[in-house]
Specification:
A six-stranded antiparallel beta sheet has the order 1-2-4-5-6-3, with helices on one face. The protein is an alpha+beta fold and 142 residues long. Helix content is 17%, strand content 41%.
């Protein structure tokens, strides 16, 4: 298993706090898959307004965290180092549960198709083994 800490993730992804949404990569294979975690804390900026009475991580940020995880897989390939992975589309996205402060959000993205600078990843987010979101994400390398 290949591990990446936050400093190594920052060497691959252009994102930075507060928009870097992956804390740790527990395993990855360049161009094939990445699995990591986002440790969700009450101090996340978005919880101040979403929703103060019942803090819930916005679904779009869960999808972004999945995309960043997939970007680790794609951008860790030697020929893609230093490039950026942009969203090209989101298909069949489903939210199946809430993510709240204290949750350890597991992020898994498997690259299922890649042709030239365009590819597709199947992405699944879970908390304690329960799927909270899944989607098919299209990316473009720029």
């Amino acid at each position: 298993m290949k591990h990446l800490g936050i400093k190594e993730i920052e060497e691959i992804l252009p994102h930075r706090h507060p928009f870097l949404l992956v804390d740790y990569i527990e395993d990855y294979e360049p161009g094939e898959f990445a699995a990591g975690y986002k440790c969700v804390t009450f101090h996340e900026d978005f919880f101040r307004g979403h929703f103060p009475q019942e803090p819930v991580m916005p679904g779009v940020l869960i999808v972004e965290a999945l995309a960043q995880t997939g970007a680790v897989a794609i951008l860790s390939k030697e020929e893609n180092r230093g490039k950026t992975a942009y969203f090209g589309g989101i298909k069949n996205c489903r939210f199946r549960g809430k993510v709240a402060p204290g949750d350890k959000l597991k992020l898994e993205t498997k690259i299922i198709k890649c042709k030239g600078p365009v590819g597709v990843g199947h992405a699944v987010a879970s908390v304690d083994g329960k799927v909270v979101a899944d989607a098919e994400l299209t990316f473009m390398i720029g």
